[in-house]
């Protein structure tokens, strides 16, 4: 059994961001017809969530291969593809709206996810790429953050107790549950 002695800081931040996304869902229907909707709130969420993905990927990579100094998304991709290739195949669900997607699927090839490129475009050239802060990119970045959180905690808990942990052990320690975006039932 996993003994959690400290706050699950990254998970708590994910849940706080998710609450903000739930507020957006009161005003914009989460469906493919609205993928291209953009707003100041979606800019804020895209920047915050994608930045957190960056932070957490760096931490995850330290558990996976502490000999590699990961500095950017391409370094993360290299380590993750080598150490946990199933990460790329993970699917997330927004059951309330019947949505399913794989935010890391582009890593099957050499490209980074479109939502990641959009995040960087919005971060560095917002006036030109403001429309990239759209609902689709925000939802995909949230899905990516959920997957990254899961694998980060799986490897953190494994390092803490010095043995393998099951997926259910990991999710049983990440409380409260996510209300909007979820992984599949094997978790």
Task: Provide structural commentary.
- There is one protein chain.
- The chain contains eight helices and two strands.
- The mean pLDDT is 94.
- It is globular, with a radius of gyration of 16 Å.
- It has a two-stranded antiparallel ribbon with strand order 1-2.
- The two termini are 16 Å apart.
- With 187 residues, the protein is mainly alpha-helical.
- A hairpin with a 4-residue loop joins strand 1 and strand 2 (99-101).
- It has one domain (9-173).
- It has helices at residues 9-25, 40-64, 73-83, 86-89, 114-124, 126-129, 135-161, 167-173; strands at 92-94, 99-101.
Topology overview:
Blueprint: H1 9-25, H2 40-64, H3 73-83, H4 86-89, E1 92-94, E2 99-101, H5 114-124, H6 126-129, H7 135-161, H8 167-173
Question: Would you summarize the structure shown here?
Answer:
By secondary structure, this protein is mostly helical. The chain has eight helices and two strands, in the order H-H-H-H-E-E-H-H-H-H.
């Amino acid at each position: 059994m996993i003994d959690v002695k400290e706050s699950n800081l990254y998970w708590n931040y994910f849940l706080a961001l998710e609450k903000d996304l739930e507020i957006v869902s009161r005003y914009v229907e989460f469906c493919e017809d609205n993928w291209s909707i953009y707003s100041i709130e979606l800019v804020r969420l895209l920047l915050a969530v994608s930045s957190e993905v960056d932070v957490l990927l760096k931490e995850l990579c330290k558990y996976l291969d502490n000999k590699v100094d990961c500095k950017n998304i391409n370094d993360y991709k290299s380590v993750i593809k080598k150490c946990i290739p199933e990460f790329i195949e993970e699917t997330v669900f927004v059951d309330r709206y019947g949505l399913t997607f794989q935010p890391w699927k582009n890593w099957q090839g050499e490209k980074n996810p479109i939502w990641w490129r959009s995040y960087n475009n919005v971060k560095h050239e917002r006036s030109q790429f403001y429309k990239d802060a759209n609902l689709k990119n925000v939802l995909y970045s949230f899905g990516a953050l959920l997957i990254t959180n899961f694998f980060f905690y799986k490897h953190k808990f494994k390092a803490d107790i010095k043995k393998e942990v099951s997926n259910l052990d990991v999710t049983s320690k990440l409380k409260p549950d996510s209300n909007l975006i979820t992984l599949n039932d094997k978790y």
